[in-house]
Amino acid sequence: MKEVIVIENLSFTYEGAEQPALQDISLSVTEGEWIAITGHNGSGKSTLAKLLNGLYIPSSGKVIVDGFSTNEVDNVWEVRQRVGVVFQNPENQFVATTVRDDIAFGLENLGFAPSEMEALIVESAKRVKVEQLLLKEPHHLSGGQKQRVAIAGIIAVKPKVMVFDEATSMLDPIGRREIISSIQQLHQQEKLTIISITHDLSEAILADRMIVLEEGNIVVQGKPKDIFKQHDIVRNVGLELPFLIELQEELIQRGLPLSGQSMTEEELVSELWTFVQKK
Could you tell me the domains of the chain? Predict the structure, then answer.
């Protein structure tokens, strides 16, 4: 698979700070992959999100997106057309008085022809189920609807990568489920490359690969099921294991012969049902 993002020896230090927010980070992201980048507050994960589409420029090292280095000023628009970011608070991304105009804003900035914009607006709205909201004012929507509108505005310009920077952290459970469902659909059906920045491991569990940061360094990376076996590492960086993993751990301690490898509720129920049938 083609590498769509390559990060080489990346370090970043905020102006006036004594310690770098990120230190000598190297990793790559392949097309169609879902990566969850997680860590406690201050670990550097949101800083990394802003470096991926040129909002921040590396203090040293490189971020290369589809062959374009973010270090080169002339590459900024090329990079931002390829990497869209959905932030924690969607209201900070709204610039228009209706959902339709807000989705159109990004298309206009990137020079899309008016003749093709309407079809792209409707298509992107349908993909995240906000087509019925096109004439509504964004600020009057629910939290989950606002985030889906923000997502629609980004997918309208057809990026190769979508970065979700704590995009579910301010939502209620219903809104959170809506956004996670949208992310899953974009990954599975649209084959978009997803980078999810989150401290919530019940969200990270859905990714293909998980990267844990602490104080600007990569502590561990791999498949979620492999990382969750290393309970001490996860807890030592101040994260809570997903309820699903803790439940399996408790059931195993109580004598149930479970694998401890179920990553979804459906998988765990299936394993428990198999155990019941054998009794």
Answer: 3-241 (3.40.50.300), 242-279 (no CATH)
Give the bridge partners for 39, in sequence order.
213
Q: Report the C-alpha gap between 219 and 270 in whole angstroms.
A: 33
Q: Are 160 and 186 in contact (CB under 8 A)?
A: no
- CB under 8 Å to 153, separation ≥6 — which residues? 93, 102, 103, 105, 106, 124
- Alpha-carbon distance of 180 to 176, in angstroms, equals 6
Residue 90 has pLDDT above 80, yes or no: no
Mean per-residue pLDDT, 255-277: 83
| Cα 247-250-251 angle, rounded to 5 deg | 85
pTM, two decimals, is 0.86
| Residue 1 reports pLDDT greater than 80 | no
Position 41 scores a pLDDT of 86
As given in the structure block, the two tokens for residue 109 are 């900035």
pLDDT in tens, 102-135: 888 888 887 888 888 889 999 999 888 899 999 9
